[in-house]
Amino acid sequence: MSYTGPVMAQQEALYQAHKDLYDRYFKEAYGLYWRSEMQGWKQDKLATAWADANSWVAKALTSKRSPPAPKIKFFLTHIPLDSSGYTKGKYPRYYGVGPKLYMLEREDGGDVVHGLQEFRATDREAAKAIVRKTYPGARF
Known about the structure:
Layout: H1 5-30, H2 43-62, E1 72-79, E2 100-106, E3 118-121, H3 124-134, E4 138-139
Parallel strand pairs: 1-4
Antiparallel strand pairs: 1-2, 2-3
């Protein structure tokens, strides 16, 4: 059956609303700007991601308010460096000197946006603020 006129416009608007919500979910929950970035994911991770997305989008469509950002738990770790900018241990890694170095990991083992795996910030609160720019619903 082919839709024309106002029905077609209504269907197109509904499709676009769904697409926008899925895009928002994957950007905020996984840091993905295009769902095609999921190509390397294992089947169980992919199924979980889509199930969570479907649940979130369903709530968003039935709610009169804007849906909250997906809640994701992260581990934010300070990486101590010596005065030369190297990590401690048997195989030290060079990061250089500057503000404190932090490492970000997802509790569920998911991928973190490139550039946020290891980053610099003046203190822990500043580090959290940097993460929340990409992941508004982040918990630590």
